Every structure is written in C-alpha cells, then in structure tokens.
C-alpha cells in the first residue's frame, strides 16, 4: 500500500441519547452543544492545519437548533458550513434495525429544514452500531446523501472488512453509496486525542499509521482519525495534538478536517476506482439487545402500527368528508373522542409520534452502569426515560387511531342499545380477509373473519359465545392439527387442500413451544468467569442448554362461528405457566398463534424462544428489513450477523416451490434454521425451515438491561404458500402486518360500510401510505419490487399515474375536493 502522507483529524462527539446521563438531560444538552460549537469556531483558529473544524455526527440536534435559534445564529451556522469548517451529516440519530421504512422517511424528510436554511447535507455518519438496514441506501440517495461513514464498535460482533476500509455499498435498486468503514470512534478518547494528551496521542496515532502502512488492502495515503467519544462536550484541546504531531513528524502532515472534507480527499484518490462493490444487508450483531426489553419493544411496535393506521384513517375521514360525531362524555379510549383535533393539531401530534418512535429506535438503551450497577437508581431512571419514548408514542398514536376510527366509521361515540357488530377498517389499498379480534363490552374478546375492501370499512355480527371442549386434535376445512403437551406445542399441522405437513417432526419440541436457553453453569467460558464483554466472536460459545416447556393438562378447543381456538398450557423450567393459542378459521389458510408469557425478573444470561420448526428442506429465508427484502446469508455483507436477525415483520421461507409466509407483530428477533446463540458463524447453517422467535435475552455487558422480566402476549401469523413466494409478497405481508385491520365492537351502530372512494393500483406491487399534510392528503407510493411499475391513484374524477422505478417512491397529494397535485 502507499505510505501515509496525511492524517485528517475529525472533531465530533458521539451522539448517545442517554448512556452517560439520563436521556431527559442528554437530548437537551446536544441541542445546546450546537451553540457551543459556534462559539469555539469563532474563538479558535480559523485557518491552517489546526483550525477548529467540527462535524455533527447526527442531524437531530442541528434540526432542533435551526428550529429554535435566532435567524442570525442560523445564518452563522450556514456560513460556517459553506466555509467548510462545519459539517452536518444526514442521519437523524444512530439508529438500530428496529426502525421501519416509514420512520426513516420521517428522519430523512426532516433534512428539508436544513436545505431551507441553506445548509447542504452530503454525508451520513453512523457510530457505534454494527449494522444498518439495506433499504436505507435508497433512502439516503433520495435525500441527496451519497456517502456513508460507519465508525462501528466491534464489541459483540465483527466488521464486514478490516477497520478502516472503503467500498461501494450497493442497494436493492443498484444505487450505491461510497462507504468508509472507519475505526471505532472511541479511539479519540482512548488515545488521548480529545483531552489533548499529546504524548499518548502521538504514540497511538503512530502505531495506527504503521499498521495501515503494513496492510496490503488499504489503498489510500490518508489516515482518518476520530477526535470524539460518547457525549463529549466540544473543546479545542484536540488542536494541541495537531501542533505536537506536526512538530515531531514533518513528513506526515496532520490537519483538522470535517468528515465531508475527509471523504472528498478519499474520493479524489486514484484508489477509488479499484474499490470493491458489496451488496446486501448490513445485519447488526448488536441487535440481540432488542431482546433485553421485550415488552417495551413490543409497545414501540404497537405504537407505530397505531400511528400508521391512525394517519390513514384520518386521511380517509378527510377525503370522505366524514360528518361530525356525537362526542363522548368520558376521556377514555373505550368510548370515543371527547373532542376532535384540528388539522394543525393532527399534524402536530403525528410529528410528535414520529419523533418519539425515532428516539426509541435510536441505539442507546440504558446507562453505562446497567450491568455493573443494575440496581442503581440511575440505571432505573435511564431505562425509565428510554422506555418513555415508546409509551409516549403508544399513548398518542393509540388515541389518534381511536379518534380517526370513529371519525371515519361514523360510529356513535357513546354506547346505545341494539345488536353489536365488529366493525373493521382497512388502512391499506388491497382487499384483506383476516381474522380480527375485538373487545366486547369490556368483558371478553371475540374473533371473527372480516373481508374489508381496500381503504374501506366492513361490519360483521359478533359471533356467539364459544363452545368449549377438551382434546388434542382439531380439524377444519383447511387444517388438521395435533397438539402434544409433552412436546410443548403442535406435533402435526397438515394443510388439507395440499396434503402438506408443516411441522418438522424430527425436532424434540412442537410448533409454538416455548424454549428456555441457559448457559451450562460448569462452562469455563470467559464471559462467565471473566467479563460478560467476552460474549464475542473471539471467544466462541459458551455452551447452552435448551429445554422446551411441557404441559400436563389437556388442551381446550373453543369454537365460535367460523373461528376455532386451540389453547394449551405449558410450564417453562423455573417460570410460571404460559398459555399458547392457535386460531383457525373456516375457509382461510391464515393461522394465528399467540403466546401469553409471565416472566419474573431474573439475572444471569438466558434466553426465551417461541419455536416454529417448519418442514421446509434446504430452505431460502427471505427477510423483511426497512425498505427491502433480502435472502439471509446470500445477500448480506461479509461477517455480518448470521447467528440472529432483527426483522421488521415478515419472513418467507421456501424451497422447491413450497413455502411459509410468517409474521411477527411484537418481537423482531429471530434465529433461522435452528438455534445459533454463540456460534458467531460466518455462514448460515440451516437445519431446516425453522424460525425461532427470540423473545428475550440478556447476553450483554453494558447499555442493555441486565435482567429479563415482563408479562406480555406475543402475536404471530403464518400460512403456507404453494408457489410464487416472492420478495414482493414478503414485503407486502410486512406492510399489512404493520398496518393491521383496525377492529372494534360497536353496539347499535349504523356504520359507513364500503370503500372510501380512493383506489391505488396495482395492489400486489405498490404499497400506499396515507397521511394528512399541509395542503391535502399525501399518498406515498412505494414500489415493492425491483421491476418498474406504473402506479395509479384514483379519487373521484381524478386519476394520477406515477412511473415508479424498482424500489422507487413517489408522492401524490390529493385535495379533499377531488383535485390532485
């Protein structure tokens, strides 16, 4: 490789929403930090190699500064950006793979605020997290971002290439971003740079330069070094390192730079032409942390589903000029709105939900002492603040969905006498026939099959009270099911029209079984004997023991109308009894499975799974990530996580023209083809078409919670697919899982059944999301696949068409008066 001729020092702070202090404080301090940077830029050297230059690692604090600051201060910031002394990057926060495509939309759309202030954003800088969703490549490019810096932390994982390296990351549509895989940002403090420890910094940077020059695969004559760490308040002390280095090393010049300038230098190198092109998901090793707080992650996922459906129903109510409602006299969610939001209030609350969802999806989970001091008030306070983002989003989004449902259906807000119906609203464009659940008089839940047109409403009578018997076998017109309590779940599940057995009989546990995984107490693994940080690829293992929950009681079979429920109880070792329910309906291939689990607080490494051992040999797994579907293993960056995956909602598992389409409403983590905890595999070894939903784990050493606890019902849906299990079908299943049918029981109501007069086609290739915006109703169209498609939006007498490239997106804004923009 060429000799290093130049060192570029990047001053920044790593943005954690919490960790070093409570999120309640840190979020505000980062906004104030912008003003501190402006003062340092004006006070410090303005030119030369040791000029004060700064990079804002994420956009959120700058967005808040631009919103709240005086115009003169915003102009000062814009001028410093124009001069190249400050860079603002385009990532809203350092996000996890929990974040959905619609949440990323809100994050990237917010950058328009910076554009309106005259601030150009060219680069996204992502720190700490070990991965990022493949679909964000397309979203970055739409936002005008063509470069990505990943300063990842390799704890509990591996980087796809040696750090540092550069490559082109190619998205699903073949668009690319120039990607610089940087060193761990924390070296800025570890090497003494942030604090101006010139002796320590000179030695460590010198070692870094020597290591780069010894590599055959590093093609640049430039070294990029970070001067930052977690939530460091900006100072100019790192400039002392520049002066000291240049005095001691005249042949290798060091200067400060922004991340934009640093990437300009790299991209100006002749080596740019020989960089590799990598294609696929950057699957995050850190995503196992999502299982440390199963209940709150489920609340977050419920919140975004309510938000998605609520904004769609609000838009449909406005498009159809829904009449004013009789208002409720109780400020409670069971009856209806006490008052209706104005259009401005609706848009404000939707934006607030967006913000709360993004704050929860950000990568900081708890304090830096959650493991060393799990009982400290600070640890509990930090997690309480983080969890509050999910609950805040949930409360407001659920209320928005409730209000919008009543506005759209025209159902009376106060209960009246008369027959009770289940009324369902479809917030998506495709007709859907599904099993829905509704609460009846606050006393019981009832299930019914409802067929609802796209963007429409349908009502069905409440089914009669169920008849209940006991037994292990159920047969409907579509399925024959056998539950084996000793195996903790379903031993046989035959799809009668095709004759397919869906359960792999070679495993010891049944489908729907709860599996407890614990470390062998005699294992000498260093994560147990030395430091939990040693749960790491450098230390394969430890050894795990897995035991499935067993049951002794005879299962119950409850039949009501077209719906049959098969319920059984089982006891995971050392835990209270759990209940599992399989729901079937006449005439439907859809199956629901629900697990109600009680988990007392317990420390020590362990995991809980719900097992789905599908009988599919030599399978391919198609996984839904934010904005894309990818084939596990085959379409992943090298050395990214194969042991576990964090999905959005849907997975397709198929081989030989047969497959299963599977969805998880509440829990994003899965292990595929078997159990893989601690394998640190470089290739996915799939025993069969098994999907193991990884509900809970506490295999961490910091940040995430050290305990597992929580009572929760976890919901799944799946069905066999005979042929044509495409990426588009998987992505469509995920879209519809996110935006579920919204069903409520209404007594004595006459509802506005039918369609809303809005049609989007083709429904199997295009997803449409509705949202009230200033100026009308936005219909956001997404091409679900790689082939270009012509999408049509019809409303009243208006017809609008848009040509969508593969994985493309476009917006149509409808005037409720039936005109379109």
How would the blueprint of this fold be written?
Layout: E1 6-11, H1 23-43, E2 54-56, H2 60-68, H3 71-82, E3 86-88, H4 101-109, H5 112-116, E4 123-128, H6 136-142, E5 147-152, E6 165-170, E7 176-181, H7 187-190, H8 198-214, E8 222-227, H9 238-248, E9 253-257, H10 259-267, E10 277-279, H11 294-319, H12 343-361, H13 377-409, E11 420-425, E12 432-440, E13 444-452, E14 456-461, E15 467-470, E16 473-475, E17 479-484, E18 489-495, E19 500-501, E20 514-519, H14 526-529, E21 544-548, E22 556-560, E23 563-570, E24 578-585, E25 591-602, E26 606-614, E27 620-625, E28 628-631, E29 645-646, E30 650-655, E31 658-664, E32 669-672, E33 689-697, E34 708-721, H15 727-738, E35 742-747, E36 754-755, E37 758-761, E38 766-773, E39 776-783, E40 789-795, E41 798-804, E42 809-814
Parallel strand pairs: 1-8, 1-9, 2-3, 4-5, 5-7, 6-10
Antiparallel strand pairs: 6-7, 11-14, 11-35, 12-13, 14-36, 15-22, 16-17, 17-18, 18-19, 20-21, 20-26, 22-23, 23-24, 24-25, 25-34, 26-33, 27-28, 27-30, 29-32, 30-31, 31-34, 32-33, 37-40, 38-39, 39-42, 40-41
Helix pairs in contact: 1-2, 4-12, 11-12, 11-13, 12-13
């Amino acid at each position: 490789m060429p000799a290093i001729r130049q060192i570029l020092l990047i001053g920044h702070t790593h943005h954690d929403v919490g960790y070093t202090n409570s999120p309640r404080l840190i979020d505000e301090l980062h906004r104030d930090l912008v003003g501190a940077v402006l003062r340092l830029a004006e006070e410090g050297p303005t030119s030369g190699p040791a000029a004060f230059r700064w990079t804002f690692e994420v956009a959120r604090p700058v967005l808040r500064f631009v919103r709240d600051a005086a115009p003169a201060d915003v102009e000062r910031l814009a001028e410093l950006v124009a001069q190249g002394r400050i860079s603002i990057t385009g990532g809203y926060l350092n996000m996890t793979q929990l974040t959905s495509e619609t949440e990323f939309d809100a994050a990237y759309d917010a950058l328009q605020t910076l554009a309106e202030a005259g601030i150009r954003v060219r680069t996204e800088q992502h720190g700490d997290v070990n991965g990022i969703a493949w679909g964000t490549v397309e979203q970055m490019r739409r936002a005008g971002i063509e470069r990505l810096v990943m300063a990842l932390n390799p704890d509990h994982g591996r980087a796809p290439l040696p750090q540092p390296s550069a490559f082109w990351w190619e998205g699903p549509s073949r668009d690319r971003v120039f990607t610089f895989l940087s060193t761990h940002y924390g070296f800025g403090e570890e090497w003494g740079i942030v604090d101006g420890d010139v002796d320590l910094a000179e030695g460590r940077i010198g070692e870094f330069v020597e290591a780069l020059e010894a590599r055959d695969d590093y093609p640049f004559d430039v070294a990029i070094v970070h001067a930052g760490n977690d939530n460091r308040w900006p100072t100019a002390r790192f400039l002392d390192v520049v002066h000291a280095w240049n005095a001691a090393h005249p042949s290798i010049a060091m200067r400060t730079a922004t991340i934009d300038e640093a990437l300009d230098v790299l991209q100006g190198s002749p080596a740019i032409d020989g960089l590799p092109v990598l294609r696929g998901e950057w699957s995050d090793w850190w995503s196992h942390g999502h299982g440390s707080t199963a209940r709150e992650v489920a609340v977050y996922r419920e919140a975004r589903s309510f938000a998605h459906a609520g904004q769609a129903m609000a838009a449909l109510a406005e498009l159809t000029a829904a009449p004013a409602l009789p208002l409720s006299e109780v400020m409670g969610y069971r009856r209806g709105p006490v008052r209706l939001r104005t259009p401005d209030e609706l848009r404000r609350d939707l934006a607030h939900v967006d913000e709360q969802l993004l704050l929860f999806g950000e990568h900081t989970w708890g304090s830096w002492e959650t493991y060393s001091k799990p009982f400290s008030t600070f640890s509990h306070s930090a997690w309480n603040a983080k969890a509050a983002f999910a609950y805040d989003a949930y409360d407001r989004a659920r209320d928005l969905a409730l209000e919008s449902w009543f506005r759209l259906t025209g159902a009376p807000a106060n209960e009246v006498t008369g027959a009770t119906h289940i009324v369902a609203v479809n917030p998506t464009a495709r007709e859907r026939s599904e099993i829905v659940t509704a609460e009846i008089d606050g006393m019981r839940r009832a299930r019914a099959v409802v067929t609802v047109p796209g963007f429409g409403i349908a009502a069905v009578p409440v089914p009669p009270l169920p008849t209940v018997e006991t037994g292990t076998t159920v047969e409907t017109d579509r399925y024959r099911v056998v539950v084996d309590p000793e195996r903790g779940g379903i031993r046989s599940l035959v799809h009668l029209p095709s004759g397919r057995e869906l359960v792999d009989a070679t495993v010891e546990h049944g489908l729907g079984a709860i599996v407890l995984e614990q470390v062998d107490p005699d294992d000498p693994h260093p994560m147990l004997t030395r430091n939990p940080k040693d749960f790491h690829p450098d230390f394969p293992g430890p050894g795990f023991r897995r035991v499935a929950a067993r049951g002794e009681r005879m299962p119950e079979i409850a039949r009501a109308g077209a719906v049959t429920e098969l319920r059984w109880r089982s006891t995971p070792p050392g835990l209270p009894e759990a209940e599992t329910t399989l729901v079937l309906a006449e005439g439907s291939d859809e199956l629901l499975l629900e697990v109600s689990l009680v988990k007392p607080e317990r420390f020590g490494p362990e995991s809980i799974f719900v097992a789905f051992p599908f009988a599919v040999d030599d399978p391919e797994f198609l996984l839904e990530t934010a904005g894309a579907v990818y084939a596990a293993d085959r379409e992943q960056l090298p050395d990214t996580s194969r042991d576990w995956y964090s999905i959005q909602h849907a997975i397709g598992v198929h081989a030989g023209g047969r497959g299963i389409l599977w969805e998880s409403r509440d829990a994003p983590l899965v292990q595929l083809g078997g159990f893989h905890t601690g394998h640190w595999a470089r290739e996915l070894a799939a025993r069969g078409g098994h999907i193991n939903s990884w509900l809970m784990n506490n295999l961490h050493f910091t940040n995430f919670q050290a305990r597992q606890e929580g009572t929760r019902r976890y919901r799944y849906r799946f069905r066999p697919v005979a042929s044509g299990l495409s990426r588009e079908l998987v992505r469509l299943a995920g879209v519809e899982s996110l935006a579920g049918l919204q069903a409520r029981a209404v007594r004595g109501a006459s509802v506005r059944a039918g369609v809303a007069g809005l049609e989007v086609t083709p429904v199997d290739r295009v997803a449409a999301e509705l949202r009230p915006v200033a100026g009308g109703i936005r219909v956001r169209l997404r091409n679900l696949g790689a082939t270009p498609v012509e999408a049509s939006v019809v409303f009243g007498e208006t017809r609008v068409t848009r040509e969508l490239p593969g994985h493309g997106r476009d917006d149509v804004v409808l005037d409720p008066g039936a005109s379109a923009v």
